Amino acid sequence: MLKVVLVTGISGSGKSVALRMLEDAGYTCVDNLPVRFLTEFIANARDDGMERVAVAIDVRSPGELAELPDVVTALRAMGTALRVVFLDASTTTLVQRYSESRRRHPLTDRLQRDGATPSLAECISVERELLAPLREQEHVIDTSDLTPSQLRAWIRDLIKTDQAPLVLTFESFAYKRGVPGDADLVFDARCLPNPYYDRNLRPLTGRDEPVATWLASFDLVGQMIDDIAAYLRRWLPHYTQDTRNYLTVAIGCTGGQHRSVYVVEQLALRFADHQPLLIRHRNQLPDDSA
Fold first, then answer.
1. Where is the domain boundary, 160, 175, 207?
2. N or C: more exposed end of the chain, with fewer CB within 10 A?
3. pLDDT tens for residues 123-140?
């Protein structure tokens, strides 16, 4: 069966990085395809015997974005194995990226009125409104604090999973960098004992045995993991029945290095029977931002 990956999202959020990764993975890639050609392109790819294609569609396709959610729904109804990946980032991050690249936002000329050039923030705001319907129903990856290599790895892991059943993702993050925008459920592990204050444990992560052993010695840590697991066991079937394709459970601590990483790893072990299952660590190392 032909597998199709549709990459969309906010300009500057990493679509070109994702598309290049897909190309390296053997996908036939097309960038900036008009929405009206998507169905025809997929039909032709199927007729030509292609196995994997990836398409990038975003705000550069004028006047058609409002039709994209309906087109996606129709394609899936016809049996197309279509995965949509929506890339997003905070406005602050996007402004910084545009400043570094010195590129113009694709809506700059389109929003110009009476010779007045819109600000970058205005362009981003309008773009969010145009893409909001698609963002609400598809898999979102917040790239605000991801390096290009992390994004490539996350996309690679995602395309390895089958479209059904629900893709369950456990993700650790650092509260000091903000709650990731792709999280569906968020749990706060900052109330747990912190290995950071042990000089021997400070340079390690929650995936290292000394840290894991230290955290496992506290009943409070086990109780939190039990409670989160019980909640998910109770409600996961209902998320699945809601025709949801993805569920991202984010666990946060101050630095995203010890407690949240450990809790994510333990939850992943408990839900190892659920497939597809993904594990993501945004900030597990002190130098992740480098």
1. 160
2. C
3. 999 999 988 888 887 889
Residue 221 and residue 215: Cα distance in Å, rounded? 7
Q: Using the Cα atoms of residue 78, residue 58, residue 139 and residue 19 in order, give the sign of their dihedral.
A: positive
- Residues 207, 100 within the same domain: no
User: Rounded to two decimals, what is the model's pTM?
Assistant: 0.69
Q: Taking CA 141 as the corner, what is the angle to CA 242 and CA 87, rounded to the nearest 5 degrees?
A: 110
Per residue in 140-159, pLDDT (tens digit) is 999 998 989 899 988 988 88
For the chain, percent helix, then strand, then coil, each to nearest 5? 45, 20, 40
β strands within the chain, DSSP E: 3-9, 28-31, 52-56, 81-88, 139-142, 167-174, 185-188, 246-253, 277-281
Closest listed residue to residue 6, CA positions, set 64, 52, 50, 44: 52
Which region, left, alpha or beta, applies to residue 24 given φ > 0 means left and ψ of -120 to 50 means alpha? alpha
The answer for residues whose C-beta is within 8 angstroms of residue 281's C-beta and 6 or more apart is 171, 172, 205, 207, 256, 261, 264
8 with 101, same domain?
yes
Do the domain assignments include residue 174? yes
Q: Determine the Cα–Cα distance for residues 134 and 41; give it in Å rounded to an integer.
A: 20
Q: Which domain holds residue 224?
A: 167-281
Q: Which of 101, 130, 160 is the last residue of a domain?
A: 160
Whether 247 is in a domain gets the answer yes
Task: Based on the fold, state whether residues 13 and 153 are members of the same structural domain.
Answer: yes
Chain position carrying tokens 């409600």: 235
Q: How far apart are CA 171 and CA 180, in angstroms?
A: 9
Instruction: Please write down the long-range contacts of 238-243, taking CB distance under 8 Å and 24 or more positions apart.
Output: 239/166, 240/165, 240/166
Q: Which tens digit of pLDDT belongs to each residue from 146-192?
A: 989 899 988 988 887 654 568 899 999 999 999 998 899 999 999 99
Residue 276 preceded by cis peptide, ω within 30: yes
